[in-house]
Amino acid sequence: MLHIEDLHVKVGDKEVLHDINLHIDDGETHVLLGPNGSGKTTLLMTIMGFSNYTITEGKIIFKGEDVTKIKAHERAKRGIGMLFQRPPTISGLKLGKMLTAISKSKEENIPELAKSVHMDKFLERDINKGFSGGEIKRSEVLQLMIQNPDFIMLDEPESGVDLENISLIGTAIGSLLEKDKYLIKRKKSGLVITHTGYILDYLDADKGHVMCDGEIKCHGNPREILKDIKQRGYKECLECRHQ
Amino acid sequence: MPSPVNVPELSKADQDRVTQVGMDLTLKNRCGSYLQMDQDIVQAECSQQGIEVLSFKKAMEKYDGMKEYTWQAVSPEKDDITRYVAAQKDPKGYVIIAHKGSNNILPIQACLYLGREQIQHVHNIIIAEEGAELHIISGCTSGAHVGKGGAHYGISEFFVKKDAKISFTMIHNWSENIEVYPRSASIVEDNGVFLSNYVCMHPVKKIQMYPTATLKGTNSVARFSSVVISTPGSYMDIGSRAILEGKGASAELITRAITKGGTIISRGHINGKTAGTRGHLECKGLILNDGLIYAIPEIEGSVVGTELSHEAAVGKLARDEIEYLMSRGLDEDEATATIIRGFLDVKIAGLPEALQRQIDSSIDVAEKAGF
């Protein structure tokens, strides 16, 4: 699904990602762990194609096609989608109008989908204006449900969300990633940033990666890595794993 | 229902322009209609019981000069425009009276079309008597191919009596060589509501207007909304003012302005003269191409107990907002248009749905043309 090779990324004049290599197969969900400021969100924004993130070396291959130089909307059309941790507020633009614009000619039942994530009363509200943490995430999930991407990046889907909402969001994301299908039939892939690991209860992740100082330092079983980090913190965890 | 308007001299292109400013030539969704082409009054009628649509001249004859209203909200000595109109021996324009307790579910339309004349002048008087509710859509336009240019001078005086309501939705679609000088004022009595909506999405040489609502009555309300786009060569000096005199009076002045290279002077003034009054003024501007948006919000309070606020912001489209929509699959132009459409989407509390749809439709036309 996604193959990243020797990727270097600058934001402004500063290189923030160094020599990133990552391979995610069809149907796999990977978890990206790392301390704040380590470059996790930068990697997701780069894969999505945001213009502030300049690729200086390396390439991003998606479904066998080099998408390194194409714009965000072209990547979205090819099947890349993202749940944002802090999406912008857009004054005046109603959530319902945005969903209609995203759905284009697809015959989605927007009110029905909105109801399934308890967002039916928000369709006439400005996007993200005055939304709580849980409402922002439910709005993001709803947009992804309509977009229906093949590869979904999730930037801290549980941050700012209460336990009840985590269950709702987790279940919806699990469904987007086809976790309800047999492994062999699962085609959708994901890359999840999480600090708490709560979301993993719904996603059944396959591999974990730890990012520090703009580099992916190690790989392994996501739950084991998370357990180590929780017990020893990032510094000790990495030292241990590098031994 | 009044008879459909027969305007054979209008080309298809001009009929489209008339329709774009909200005129329904079939009159299926209108209870009354006034149509003035240059200085010729083509139609002035209303089928709604309790509401009259008259030419200015006929109203003066019928109601003995309407001394209680004529030049009572706008001073004839205000400026050169008012003096010019006041000096006319054969004044044109309309008088709409919603008599006590009347209510029009379907709006009345008033169309002022400028074709050949150098100057089109009108003097309009709009009255909602006690307990009446009156909704008007006013479409002002010029021929698609007005060569030599021209000017529109329009005096409008509104009187909202006790417990009455007027909504006045004005849509402009002029041409690059037309100058427009509306001079409007309203007087609102106890519990009266005055809603004024203005939309101009098309080129114009110059517009200058600063409608004023004087809220004399207890708990009287005024809401102004303006949505404008200024293209290169257009000069728009627009504004609105509310004077809060009655106890509990409140006003809201909202402007959304976009320059694509033209000039917009966006004025606003709320004067709180009495305790217990409230006012809010909001001007948001987007600069899409180098031009000018000059926002001048003024709030003036002179007594303890008046609460006034203002909010003004001028800027460009935010890159992160555009890319957020692009990450959902919209290309850059679609994302930009979607954000602009949202920016212009001002919902006016108390406005009938049909008129809100008309405003939305005017903006939709501009959106389809790529703003």
Unreliable sequence segments of chain A: none
How many domains make up the coordinates of chain A? 1
| End-to-end C-alpha gap of chain B | 35 Å
Shape of chain A: globular
Q: Report the biggest beta sheet of chain B as strand number plus sense, adding barrel if it closes.
A: 10 strands, mixed
What is the assembly state of the chains in this entry? heterodimer
**How many strand elements of chain B?**
20
Contiguous uncertain segments of 5+ residues of chain B: none
How many distinct helices of chain A?
A: 8
**What is the radius of gyration of chain A?**
18 Å
Distance between the termini of chain A: 31 Å
Give the DSSP E fraction of chain B (strand runs of 2 or more residues).
35-45%
User: Looking at this structure, what is the CATH superfamily of chain A?
Assistant: P-loop containing nucleotide triphosphate hydrolases
Describe the structure.
The complex is a heterodimer of chains A (243) and B (371). Chain A is an alpha/beta fold. Chain A has one domain (24-52, 69-242): P-loop containing nucleotide triphosphate hydrolases (Rossmann fold, 3-Layer(aba) Sandwich). Chain A is built from eight helices and twelve strands. In chain A, strands 6-9-10-3-11-12 form a six-stranded mixed β-sheet, sandwiched between helices. A four-stranded antiparallel β-sheet of chain A has the order 2-1-4-5. A two-stranded antiparallel sheet of chain A has the order 7-8. In chain A, helix 3 (95-103) packs parallel to helix 5 (133-147) and helix 5 runs parallel beside helix 6. Classes of the chains: A alpha/beta (243), B alpha/beta (371).
